[in-house]
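Q: Hi! First time doing this. I have a protein sequence and I read that you can turn it into a structure. Is that right? Here it is:
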Amino acid sequence: MSAARENLRTARRIVVKVGTSTLAHAATGKLNLYRIEQLIRELADLHNAGREIIFVSSGAIAAGMDKLGIKNKPETIPENQALAAIGQGVLMHIYEKFFAEYGQTMAQFLLTKENASDTHARENFHNAMSTVLNMGVIPVINENDAVTVDEIRIGDNDNLSAIVATLVDAEVLIILSDIDGLFDGNPKVDKTARLIDEVPEITSAVEKMAGGVGTKLGTGGMFTKIQAAKLATSNGVTMLIVNGSTVGNLRQVLNGESIGTIFPAKI
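A: Yes, that's right. Below is the predicted 3D structure, encoded as structure tokens:
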């Protein structure tokens, strides 16, 4: 076990980011309630074990599409913003229900990268988050897609989760995706592609490994995750890319098991 993975066993403040591909069924686009409940149960139990959990969620647009019965993601920004406004409440209702069933209280925060770049807003966010965590509450952070543009264009807000991790002084950021981690090739077309366990430094060669777009529901790809890793690790946060479809991955990775790809913190 590497030193970086060993440190995961004692990490206390953890940001978990879930992508749309984990929250929705690929075939229908409808919310995957079974997987969502399993994920919330994992987060609740990690909280019971003494970890501080900050949950960053994508999926508002997908939830809005599900609510209205729309199968294909619209191309225009106003349409996506409208769907996000509809889906935001749907997601929060589901999260609150499941967290309550497992004895946890949650608090919602809406954030954009613009908020995070303003010094005064950053300070207020940090203070509010610290207070919520001290109360034993699990913060659920949603990208405010209803009023923003960049997040919708870039997709799934991996970079935003890295910003959140730095703002809350997290030790670890775990990005749950629809892939096992970073491969040295595209595993969807190359059966010999090998999963990379640890990336000690993000070089140009590593960046070249990341390419392509995400699913039809989420537009994020591996490239945005590598960008997030650069931001997180340079600010003292260890980041991991883990398959969000596998139940129990969170607990296992936080026990130091070799799951996904780890990007150790630089400082």
